[in-house]
Design goal:
- It is built from one helix and seven strands, in the order E-E-E-E-H-E-E-E.
- The chain is mostly beta strands.
């Protein structure tokens, strides 16, 4: 997946009652429209879908609460205008 920006997911692993941060850097993330964050379990089931507010993209940081997610391994995917832009494995403790 090539793009003029990168995302960093931290902390990883994270506690199931903690906060997971996505930090964006590079030149292209501010111009993205309708950024979606999707969380999938290891079975490929969509667990959570959230829109990332444009103002968070402008700041380069977005935080979401992992409360309610069971312990395990998940795939966090970012997409914009229906295209996969980034994906990362995260472990919830």
């Amino acid at each position: 997946i090539s793009q003029p920006w990168i995302a960093n997911l931290f902390p990883n692993p994270v506690q199931n009652s903690g906060k997971l941060n996505l930090a964006f850097s590079g030149s292209g993330y501010k111009s993205l429209q309708d950024m979606q964050c999707e969380v999938y379990n290891v079975k490929g089931q969509l667990i959570q879908r959230t829109s990332i507010p444009k103002e968070n993209l402008a700041l380069g940081l977005w935080t979401f609460d992992t409360k309610g997610l069971a312990k395990g391994i998940y795939l966090v995917r970012l997409s914009s205008v229906g295209k996969l832009r980034w994906a990362k494995k995260v472990t919830i403790l």
